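**User:**
If convenient, please work through this fold.
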Amino acid sequence: MNKSLRPAVIAGNWKMNKTPDEAVTLIKELIPLVKDADCEVVACVPFVDLHAAIEAAKGTNIKIGAQNCHWEKSGAFTGEVSAEMLKAVGAEYVIIGHSERRTLFGDNDLTVQKRTRAALNAGLKVILCVGEYLEQREQGITTEVVRIQTKIALLGVAKEELKNIIIAYEPVWAIGTGKTATAEQANEVNKAIRDLIAELYGKDAADAMVIQYGGSMNAGNAEELLAQPDVDGGLIGGASLKAEDFSKIVAAASK
């Protein structure tokens, strides 16, 4: 982290977990544990939990986000939710391009770009996920893959809009597997992303860009990962479902 240049952001991705009542319970457990955090704290919850989570977090330092949005404002898209709908219920953030959306539900670089554009148009902050598969890392093309994903996602995004984008580097081979990139590996890719932002938008934009790591960060390894100069926080999966564990990661980002 380099808090002199940009804030740290710890965001929980609850995935398909917690009913609305369970969401309220978790957020109420979390509130006293993170109230003095020196970083931004976000919980990205299932669609059905949004209203309950927003009400439970009202007046606190916990921001609430969603996990996906469609690129159209409305229409015949059964099962989808628009960015405008998310904004209307009070969501502030939305995750776009998570590896599970890409792998299980057919998202690709183009649809990620369209979803990102829609979210920005609606006034949401985007947590944009990029990352390579294990075979791509073994082939030595991690940097190329991540650069292409990032470049396409940012097509049409103006420099002044970057303040509403966080990039989360998520090596697919480390999502939900218990495997974690080493702190040095995470920093190397995050730096490559920052170098790309500098190429596209200038050094000042790159210095201000929050770039998280999102591959199985937990209470045990968060401090080492967050000590890296280009790791500005985390997108947290399983550990975000336990208030105590999540608060320890927030505490590591608050140092």
